[in-house]
Structures are given as C-alpha cells and as structure tokens.
C-alpha cells in the first residue's frame, strides 16, 4: 500500500487532463459540426432560391405562336400600288390577321364572339406582318402561312399556368376560347417556339412583346463607361497614396474617407448624382452617361482599396532592383511595381463592376426607372438597366411578367457568375507568389 500511494495523485492528474481533453475535442467537434451545418444550410437556401427562379423563369424562353394563312391583300396594304414605304407602314395589318382568323373559324358569328376570337392573337401580330412587308414588298398580293404571336393569356394556358379544370368564372380563358385553342393544337397550328423577342426587343406593356434588349444594352453602356471612368482614376489614386504621398494627417484623412465611402449606402450616391450631375451640371436624366457617373463614384473606393492592397503585395525588392539597374523612382514604380500589381487591380475592378451591375437604388434616383421601349443607340439616349427592368416587371400583376422577371434574373445572375469567374481565373493565372 505504501508503494502505490505516490502514484495515486499522478493518476488523478492524468484523469483530470484526459477529461479536459475530451471536453476540448467534443467542443471542437461541435464547432466543426455547426460550421458544416451553417454551410449546408446556406447552400440549401441558395439552391431553393435558384430552383424557384428557374422554375418560374425557364418558360419565358419559349413563346406560343399560331400559324395562320395570311393573304397580303393589295387593297388593304397598298390600294394605289405605289409601294411607298409610308403607305406600307400605315396599312391596316390588323385587318389581315382578323380576316385570317375568321376564315379559319367561319362558324364564329356575332360581334362579341368575334372579339373573343380576335383576342387569340397578340397586339404585336400586326406589327410582325408590317415588318415582313417592309422587308419584302413582293409579298403584297400573295398568300403565305405565317407564325404569329399568340396573346399572353393563350401563352399562359399552353404553358400550364392557367388551370383548365377550374370553373369558367375563375379563369381568364373562357370555354369557347379553350375550344378554339384545342382546334388549333389538333391542326398543328399552335406551337411553342424559342422566344427570340425576349433577347431582341425592348420592354412593352404586353408580356409577350416584352424583352430585355433595351435594358441589356443600357447595362452594357453604363458598365463600359463606369469602367472607363473609374479604373484610371482609382489606379492613379492608389498609386499616389501608396507610392508617392507623404505620410501626414492629410493623407491619413484621405485614407479614412476612402474607407468610409466604401460603406456608404448606394442610394446616397444616387442623391449626390441627382444634385450634382443632373441639377447642377445638366447631364440628361435616364441616360447611361449619368448612370455611369453615379456608379463611378460608388465603385471608386472599392477599386482604390483593392489596388492599394495589390501594390502592397509587391515586394520592395522589385522597386530596389529597378533602382539598382539605373531606373528612376518614377520609372521603377510605373514600369515594374505597377505591372506586377496589375492582376490584383484587375481582379478588384471586376468585383467592383459585378457589384454595380446589380445596383438599382442609385439609378432609380436619376430617372433610369422610366418606361423605355426603344433600344438605346448611344450613351446619351434614354435607357434603363437590367436590375431596374427586373424591378419594373416585378411590380406588374400579369402572370406573363412574372416569368419574364425570373428569366431576367437568370440572365443577370449569369452575368454576375461570369464576371466573378473571370476575376477568379484572372487571379489564378496572373497572381504571383513572392
């Protein structure tokens, strides 16, 4: 008993240590489990969001069309026979569409029934015929089978968004219209086709005619100008602050303000742009030019901070080696330090551009929320951008705009993914490890 007594305190100490280790390992395991659970939960929410957007938006990439035998009647299109472009543009193409429908359904009589029959077609169908005649006046006097856009209610019915089994009083499409649609389907005259208008047309009050071409071009113009304005200014500012500026209270004040500006809410920049660029300098409202000026102010702090971090990552030996072979201090910084930091600067710039691509609030303040039908042809033409277009469509009650809202979100997300992927690939390709 006397020999085992000295070992007892040691065993008790080891037991205490083991208990503490088990608790520590258990706490670490719980922490790792919570981290993994948080990541899985976040990915689950993202997956649900993407699935919801895709489920509502993929149908917008198809549009229902109806094939009708159109007779391009000369007495309707060009009674005089001059083939003048103004005359062809003002012709009553709606009459051609209605005559084709009546010829296809001769049993339909009465003004009310025929009005319901005419509503099978989109208000944009006559415009399709006008564009065909203007492109080829030789069609006048001929008869051709033409695929024309169906109305948005018919499109929603074909896509399954309207419940055919619901009572007639609860449906936007009545029983007689269902009969006409079924007849067209049986005859092979009603099909879903790829929706080219979604990518080539501007916005419209009719869902089947609405597209993102105007918003897409407005976004490209705005982003291009933003990059043109912000990148040189941001790189020059970062180079001066990091390489040339003396360390005093003024440069400290500038650095603090740059860092603070990166956290300013975006709507504040919109108010600033409204007060300065529009009201003071008179820049036209709702144009890519004023949008780019506002977004330049917003993205400058982000690019400056990223550019300074890239310059700091360049080893001082690069500058010293350039001085050692006879370069001046300016040449060493411009010809050696700056090129070495450029990949990091470009990465920060792409991330900054990706951020402003999704901005809406500052652009609402400068009038880019206007209803713009035409596709902008320049930076001073009235325009909107993709996030604002999504905002406008999301506020529309028609079911056709719901799917177009989700489809536009899909396009916007694709752009964001591409830009962020480009930033990652650029960093991996040109990043140097010193």
CATH architecture designation of the largest domain = Orthogonal Bundle
Class of the largest domain, according to the CATH hierarchy?
Mainly Alpha
Question: How far apart are the first and last residues' alpha carbons, in Å?
Answer: 65 Å
Q: State Rg.
A: 32 Å
The count of domains is 3
3D structure, described in words:
It is a single chain. The protein has helices at residues 7-57, 74-77, 85-89, 93-104, 111-118, 125-135, 152-158, 175-186, 197-200, 213-244, 249-261, 266-278, 288-312, 316-324, 329-357, 361-365, 386-394, 399-430; strands spanning 62-71, 143-149, 190-194. It is mainly α. The chain folds into three domains: 7-58; 61-202, no CATH class; 213-430, MetI-like fold (Orthogonal Bundle), CATH 1.10.3720. The protein has a three-stranded antiparallel sheet. Helix 1 packs across helix 18 and helix 11 crosses helix 13 (288-312). The termini are far apart.
């Amino acid at each position: 008993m006397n020999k085992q007594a000295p070992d007892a305190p040691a065993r008790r100490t080891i037991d205490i240590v083991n208990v503490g280790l088990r608790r520590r390992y258990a706490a670490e395991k719980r922490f790792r489990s919570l981290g993994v659970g948080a990541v899985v939960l976040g990915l689950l929410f993202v997956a649900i969001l993407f699935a919801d957007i895709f489920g509502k938006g993929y149908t917008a990439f198809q549009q229902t069309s109806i094939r009708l035998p159109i007779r391009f009647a000369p007495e309707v299109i060009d009674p005089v026979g001059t083939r003048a472009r103004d005359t062809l543009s003002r012709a009553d193409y709606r009459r051609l569409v209605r005559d084709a429908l009546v010829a296809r359904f001769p049993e339909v009589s009465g003004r009310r029934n025929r009005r319901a029959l005419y509503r099978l077609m989109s208000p944009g169908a006559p415009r399709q015929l006008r564009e065909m005649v203007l492109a080829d006046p030789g069609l006048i006097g001929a008869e051709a089978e033409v695929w024309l856009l169906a109305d948005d209610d018919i499109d929603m019915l074909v896509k399954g968004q309207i419940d055919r089994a619901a009572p007639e009083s609860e449906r936007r499409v009545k029983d007689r219209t269902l009969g006409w649609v079924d007849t067209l389907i049986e005859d092979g005259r009603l099909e879903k086709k790829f929706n080219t208008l979604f990518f080539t047309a501007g916005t419209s009050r009719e869902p089947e005619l609405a597209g993102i071409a105007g918003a897409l071009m407005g976004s490209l113009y705005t982003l291009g100008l933003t990059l043109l304005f912000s990148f040189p200014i941001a790189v020059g500012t970062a180079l001066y602050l990091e390489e040339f500026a003396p360390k005093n209270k003024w440069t400290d004040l500038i650095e603090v303000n740059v860092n603070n500006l990166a956290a300013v809410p975006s709507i504040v920049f919109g108010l600033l742009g409204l007060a300065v660029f529009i009201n003071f300098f008179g820049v036209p409202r709702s144009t890519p030019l004023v949008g780019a000026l506002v977004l330049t102010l917003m993205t400058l702090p982000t690019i400056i901070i990223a550019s300074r971090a890239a310059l700091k990552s360049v080893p001082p030996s690069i500058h010293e080696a350039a001085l050692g072979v006879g370069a001046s201090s300016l040449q060493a910084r411009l010809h050696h330090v700056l090129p070495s930091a450029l990949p990091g600067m470009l990465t920060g710039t792409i991330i900054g551009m990706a951020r402003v691509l999704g901005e809406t609030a500052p652009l609402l303040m400068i009038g880019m929320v206007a209803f713009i039908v035409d596709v902008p042809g320049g930076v001073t033409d009235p325009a909107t951008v993709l996030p604002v277009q999504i905002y406008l469509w999301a506020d529309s009650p028609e079911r056709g705009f719901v799917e177009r809202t989700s489809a536009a979100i899909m396009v916007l997300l694709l752009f964001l993914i591409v830009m962020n992927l480009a930033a990652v690939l650029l960093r991996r390709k040109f990043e140097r490890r010193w």
